[in-house]
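Incident log, structure service

09:12 report received: a user says their structure output differs between two submissions of the same chain.
09:20 pulled the input from the user's history:
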Amino acid sequence: MNRAIIAATMLALGPSVVISEAAYAQSPENDEGFYVGGGVGQFDIEIDGADGIDEALGRLDDDDTAWQAFVGWRINPYIALQAAYVDYGGPEDDFSTSGSSGNYKAEISGFAPSVIGSFPLGPVELSAKLGYYFYDLDITANIDDPTDLDFDSSDSGEDLMYGVGLGVTFLERLHAKLEYEKIDLEDVDDSNAFWLTGQWRF
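09:34 re-ran on a clean worker, output below:
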């Protein structure tokens, strides 16, 4: 999945909203309660010199496919509590410097509790998310030159994450959403994700 696909999906939401008006009816019985869901997306990360790696080898600017699974509880139409397992994949890049070349990779996954605020407008729903990401981050540098030692770092942390979304509800229960998410990872210059998620509201 790439940004072009996500952008095209966002443009397609306009006609979908109109079409779904006839199929959607705001139901008081669906204003609160349990939901489950999942999503797929694209994770982008930029690292410019990790601790323990020469600056010339420490540059990583790449993306990878991400996925998540989550459960949540809608307290009312405007506030929900959610717990997710999020795997941002393993973005990697090749490097080549004078005398050395190889591969640089970062793998990250973890647990993310969050609070989600929503503003329903008929079938359309605007949302904002604020949470914490408890993660394991593995950074490896495989160097082709046998005289240089490979680098392998494993770390755990917890950092703030936040985002915004635009969703549409079909048949009162199925909610599809496009989301942009920012993750303030320590020792990472930039990290963000674009998501297409779906949830079933019981």
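09:41 both user submissions now match this output. Likely a transient worker issue. Closing.
09:42 reviewer note: The chain is about 10% helix and 65% strand. The first strand starts at residue 33 and ends at 48.
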